[in-house]
Amino acid sequence: MTEMAAEVLSEVRGQVGFITLNRAKALNALSLGMVRDLLATLLAWQKDEKILAVAIRGNGKEGAFGAFCAGGDIRFLHKAGSIGNPELEDFFTEEYALNHLIHTLGKPYIAFMDGIVMGGGMGISQGGTARIVTERTKMAMPETIIGLFPDVGGGYFLSRCPGRVGEWLALTGDTINGADAIAYKLADGFMPSDKLAGAWEQLGSQTFASGAAIQQWIESQYVPAGEGAFGNRAHIDRFFALPTALDIVLALEKEGDEWCQKSAAVLRKRSPLMLEVVLEQVRRAREMTLAEDLRMERDLVRHCFYLRPGESETLEGIRALAVDKDHNPKWNPARVEDVKRELVEAFFESPWPAHSHPLAALA
């Protein structure tokens, strides 16, 4: 087994295909090799009538579970984007194709979303039929921190959260717990972390009449989720419904309470340009199919790296967070008050004619 292949472990036991993400030191952040392994495995299992369902988990530093997936490998993205490595383009095209496949697999897909579930980790779980969270789940789409946007179908699934929760999560990158994830329609059921291993083993050792029987059995293992972490639905729905990111920031700053002040301070740290792009993304995606949203996101990510040569918000954001680690990104423009509407709209112009789009085949 090659080192690359060892980052994704797959086996079939009984009637279920089991996938374990095995890059614990990096919190199972997805590399291009991992995306390719996952795609190849799922395509093969989709056609195999003996495999009735798929289950996926992440290895933590102390063994199975404990960390699902912290996202994509942002250091790779920074290096590839800085030197023009074409594997950057491959990574996003193939990752988004993987996200689409999970949503359209046609079999139960059981995601054990224990520990950190962020970014790319959401992309390989949100299409599941059983999205299981635990008391250790920390869920977020934190891409605005690095001058990116919530991709991997984020426009699609965040825009379908209740009220304006999608806009709030997309713009702030705030982290929620398992109970909130269920309330916000980003998870289906709760399981205590000490029950995960038993459920995983039973999926492979029992005999099931059908995929539907597997789905019913896993749902029978859910227990009440308990309390949410935080979040103020009344404020979220009021402020994050405003027309622009600038309107949202200014309105929050005018409000005296602590939640509003904290939220405004968070937004002031994000890329001003990408705040407006992200708000537009989520609102457009509300009216889109998953395939349409993924094609839009593929356009957006191309522009994130190449729309303004030498001035990528994403490369600057990753530099500040993960490369130089100075946590002081130099955003351009520096203030949300200075974002020009025409620059936001340029992100939504596809670089490809429809027939030649890298994701043209998605339906």
From TrEMBL:
Gene Ontology terms for molecular function: 3-hydroxyisobutyryl-CoA hydrolase activity; isomerase activity
Keyword Secreted: no
UniProt keyword list: Hydrolase, Isomerase
Keyword Cell wall biogenesis/degradation belongs to the record: no
Pfam families referenced in this protein's UniProt entry, alphabetically: ECH_2
CDD domains reported in the protein's UniProt record: crotonase-like
Domain Enoyl-CoA hydratase/isomerase, first and last residues per copy: 16-348
Stated name of the protein: Enoyl-CoA hydratase/isomerase family protein
Species for this entry: Diaphorobacter aerolatus
